[in-house]
Every structure is written in structure tokens, then in C-alpha cells.
Amino acid sequence: MRARLAAISAALLLALPASGQELAGHAGPVSALAAAPDALISGGFDGRTIQWDRSGATARRILRFHDGNVTAVATTGDGFVSAGQDGRIALWREGQDDPVRATERAASPVSALAAADTQIVAGFFDGSLMRIDPATNEAVTQPGHEGRVAGLAILPGGDLVSVGADLRFVRWHADGSLASRMSLPELPNGLARAGDILAVVSADGVLRLHSPEGELLPDRFLSNRPLVAVAAAQDRVAAADVDGTVWLLDLPFLVPRAEIQTGHGPVWALAMAGDALFSAGADGVIRQWSARDGAALGAPVAAVPPAPEDASRGAEVYRACAVCHSLAPGDHSRAGPSLHGVFGRPIASAEGYAFSEALRNLDIVWTPETVAELFTHGPDAYTPGSRMPNQRVTDPADRQALVEYIARHSR
Amino acid sequence: MARMKFLCDADRCIECNACVTACKNEHEVPWGINRRRVVTLNDGLPGERSVSMACMHCTDAPCASVCPVSCFYTTADAVVLHNKDTCIGCGYCSYACPFGAPQYPQTANFGTRGKMDKCTYCSGGPEPDMSQAEYVKYGANRLAEGKLPLCAEMCSTKALLAGDGDIIAEIYRERVVTRGYGSGAWGWRTAYGETLTV
């Protein structure tokens, strides 16, 4: 297998602050977090999976294995697991640059992961479940839900609990057979386990606790906005909504302990370990909070710098491009390459970016005219095989404004 | 201008899936995507009820607030639509949606992200009304023809109502007063930030 992996020494790339501070390494939204007493793993829209050194607040390994968003991560006893929008699941061990096991691409993105010593389970957007035995690497896929698997948790005895877009809370035996099934009152968006308590966050802004059998335990309305992330550890649970508010509550009665305004857009992922709570989301920065009182740990760091704003129509049109492209020289940290110096450059020639083979075989030089053509026809037609989403700018005036904006800011 | 809304009366839904089928047919929705689905709660148990779920075209729609490329917009009829020319298929709208409405396409080429797909309230997209380009990307534009969404038109028990929010809310109130009970208009508070009181 030709692993498309770049394990890069973080010391070369990232000047990260000292212990306790925020972690900035993703160039785009962070979608997934997993924490253990000595580990923190993150996955993001930039396609990176980052293994952080918690004691030094530095990125130990930056892995570019998945095509597209890294949608779920989980820690294991001797490593971690990553999964993405490409439907692949990769098992990583300490000290190895290649995954010890990687599944094939799937038609459906992975939406949830859970890991224990004896099994790794992935849930997909199409509702299927995949169980991987880490000892034998054997993978078995089975139907799970009708619609997105929103959360997974493995119970101490090996049973699995899953929640899905079909509003079902399902308990499965370790062999994959159905143990019990309950209805949920609202759409679940995440599941976390603390001992025998399962915490489910829902789109109606309610955090609900369940027993492993699905029985409803205490619940608490937290927000008028959908809750989208949850984490639990020992006697505490945290939940976050799409506006960036994080609630920290005591188990088992959901007594509020702290409310944190992260202030940087949606929080897509939470993780807890020991006395630390980690949150991350739209701005790509991982933030640390005290799991005791919600106090911020460490000083802020700068998020991904926004694209230059010059009050032009081109700047407005370029906002969609800025999610994946930087204009800074050599900054290929986002999902796509830097556009610095793009005009006059042959396609797929920017140094330091791993272009797809389809792009390397094309014979195009980027000029204002060819860039306008790209957005007239869309990448599917103009650069077939590109990983770029099929963006089109249908208004000729907007295309012209975009090209002029790139010309002004890519020099 | 009307404020268009959906209302799902869970006490009337019989899980026939006509709304799902009508939607698929009307818009030629690709394999692997359902813009509307029927979910049954407490299946086979006392209190069983079904709800027809799709984009509810929320007031202050969470999908729009989390989209990193701002591809969502609200029409004059208060219908929430998205521009597939701008969408990058990141999927965050899907996480934010209270109804699981935005769907990942399953036909995109390997290594590429497709475009999210969702209910358009049968009102097309940003292309010219009833154009071929609009139909290919978004499906039929029944609103431009003066018609309501086909899912609700097709509903044999009128569990699913579409139209001006004030009018369909009044229809639901009359039903509850007449029959003497109601388990609530499913999703109404979450979508529109108000309780439908009777």
C-alpha cells in the first residue's frame, strides 16, 4: 500500500506556546477531538490528523492520510484511530509513520468512532456500522441505523451503544446482534459515556442521560440552538452548541458547573481527560479549559488569518476560496495549495503541495483567463479528477472581480 | 408575502411514505439521498407515532449560521435554500441541522467532495425559475408555478401541511380543539422558535 502520509516534525513547522496554552495547528475547522490522560488527537477539514504532546502543548505528528475532512478520531491503548469523509478508517500506533491498518474508501463518510482494547467501531452517514478487531484486523460491516450514525460508545463488557438519525438508541451485543432498541424524542447529535451513564446531545438543545439499556435518566435543556458536541469523563459531562457555548455539568444529576462562551463560532468537538476540557470548531484552534470550573487555561493564540479584506466584490467572492486556499507564500496548510504567485504558474507546480495525479497530467498555465475559465465551467469539467469541490461562479462580473482580487493579493 | 412553513401532525401520520416517494419522483432525487424521510417513534409500542422529516426552513437557520462559505440564503417566502455552485460539501450544515436535512451525495468521484442536497420546499434554487439548469441541480420549482410542495399535497391524511405558517397553524389548532388531543406539531418550536399553543 502506498500510504499518502506526511509525518512532519512539528518543531519545524509550528512555533507553539508553552504548556497550558491553546493549540493552533489546523488550517481550517476542527471536526474531531479525542483525549486520554497523556494524549490528545484532533482531526480537521484541512485533512490533517494531529497527535499533540499535551505536556508540552506541541504537535508531535501531523498526518495527511485522509482525503477531505477528518470527521472522527478516538484513542486506543497503544495508539489512536482516525476516520474521514473519504470513508476510510486508519489505525495508528506510536512510533509508526504508516497506519497499521487502513480500510478501503467507502461511498459514505464516517460520522462516529468508538475504540476499546478489543474492538474499534465506526458509524457511517448511511447508517452502517463497521467493527474492526484490532488483533486480527478483520472488519465486519452491518446495518445499524436508517440515516447518520450520530454517536457510538463501547460499554465495559464489550456491548456497543449507538444513536442515529432514525431517532433510535440501540444497544448491540459484542457479536453484533441486537440487544435492545429505544426511541429518542429528538435528533441526536453525539454520544459520550462516563461509567454507566450515556450522555446524548440533541438538536432541540437538550442534554439527555440514559442508562445502558436506554432508560431516560435526568435531562436538561441547555440551548435554543442545536447541541452538536459532547464529552464525558468520570463525574462530569460537557456539551456545546452551534453558537459556540459550552456547558460543563456534574453527573449524575446534571448540576450546572460552568458555562463557557468560546466566542469563535460553532464548537464541533469536545474532549475531556482528567481536569482538562478541550474544545475546537470553526476557527481551527483547540482551546483548553478547566474541567472543574470552566476557566480558560493558557493565553489565546491567533486563529487562521483571514484573507485580505479590501472591501471589494472580489473579496466577498473569495471568501469561499479562503476556506481551502491561503494567499501567503508557501502556506499549503489548508486543504488546497497556496495561491501565492498563481498567475503564470503551470498547473500542479507549486512546491510543497501533494497534487493529485489527474492535475499533474494536465497542461494548463494559470492566468486570469484560465482561472476565469475554471470558474465558468467548474473543476469537474475544466480540471477533471481534481480534489477541488466543483465550484462555479456563474456571474461574469463576479468572476472578473475574483480574478482581479487574486491578482492583487497573490503577488 | 407569506411565511412558508411545514407542519407535521404526528397524530395523523400513518407512515405510508407517500411524501418521500413524491419528493423523489418530483425532483428526480439521486440514489442514496432522501430529501424527506418518515421516522417512527416507539415502533410497535404504546404511543407509537410517525413524523415526516425534512428541512423545516427554520427561522434563524443553524445550517446558514455554520456554513463556512455562506452558501445558504432565505427567499422572500422565507424558504431556506443553498447555492450548489458555492457549496464545498464540507457537511457542517448536516451536523447543525435539527432535522438531519442536508444530505451527503453518494455519487461524487473518489477523492472529491460533492454538493450537499436538501429539501427546497419545491422552490428550486438561485437559477432562473423553472429553467433546465435549476431543475438539474435542485429539482422542480412548484412555488414558481403557484403550487405548494408536492410532499404535503400528496399526504393522504394531511398529516403534513405546507403553506403560510399562520394558516397551517390555525388548521392544526382547529384539529386539536375538535379531536381533543394533540401530541404537538413535531419540530415546530425547534424550527420556528415558538410554541404552537392551542
TrEMBL record, chain A:
Example of a GO MF term: heme binding
Signal peptide extent: 1-20
Keyword Repeat in annotation: yes
Keywords carried by this UniProt record: Electron transport, Heme, Iron, Metal-binding, Repeat, Signal, Transport, WD repeat
Residue spans of the WD repeats: 23-53, 63-92
Superkingdom of source: Bacteria
SMART domains noted in UniProt: WD40
PROSITE patterns: CYTC, WD_REPEATS_2
Domain Cytochrome c: 309-410
Pfam families per record: Cytochrom_C (PF00034), WD40 (PF00400)
Protein name (database record): Cytochrome c
Species of the source: Paracoccus tibetensis
TrEMBL record, chain B:
GO terms for MF: 4 iron, 4 sulfur cluster binding; electron transfer activity; metal ion binding
Transmembrane annotation, as ranges: none
SUPFAM superfamilies membership: 4Fe-4S ferredoxins
Needed cofactors: [4Fe-4S] cluster
KW 4Fe-4S (keyword) present: yes
Domain 4Fe-4S ferredoxin-type intervals: 4-34, 78-107
Pfam family, one: Fer4
Classification via InterPro entries: 4Fe4S_Fe-S-bd (IPR017896), 4Fe4S_Fe_S_CS (IPR017900), 7Fe_ferredoxin (IPR000813), ET_IronSulfur_Cluster-Binding (IPR050954)
This protein's record includes keyword Transport: yes
Assigned keywords, A-Z: 4Fe-4S, Electron transport, Iron, Iron-sulfur, Metal-binding, Transport
NCBIfam families: FDH3_beta
PANTHER family linked to this entry: PROTEIN NRFC, PROTEIN NRFC HOMOLOG
Protein name, per record: Formate dehydrogenase iron-sulfur subunit
